[in-house]
Amino acid sequence: MFGCLVAGRLVQTAAQQVAEDKFVFDLPDYENINHVVVFMLGTIPFPEGMGGSVYFSYPDSNGMPVWQLLGFVTNGKPSAIFKISGLKSALYFCR
Fold first, then answer.
1. Do 56 and 91 meet the contact criterion of CB atoms below 8 Å apart?
2. What Cα–Cα distance (Å) separates residue 35 from each residue in 6, 20, 80, 86?
3. Which residue from 6, 51, 58, 91 has the fewest beta carbons nearer than 10 Å?
4. Taking a C-beta distance cutoff of 8 angstroms, is the pair 83, 35 a contact?
């Protein structure tokens, strides 16, 4: 349903589904990533009028997750490039 691309790395298309409407991509060595591309694979469109928010998650000083909204994708905007340099740990997608 979704893909994730980091320059110099293989495309990730096997997002971990953590809830009916939530998917996670792991970004190892995130400290060395400047931008990430999130895109729809074209296999399953969103319902009409719907889209998906893209979040970046990282742990705070207590180890609790912090969620940073990066943007969104929709059927009309099926891909987007997000700057993540300076942020922290895992990419989280919620539709």
1. yes
2. 7, 27, 10, 10
3. 58
4. yes
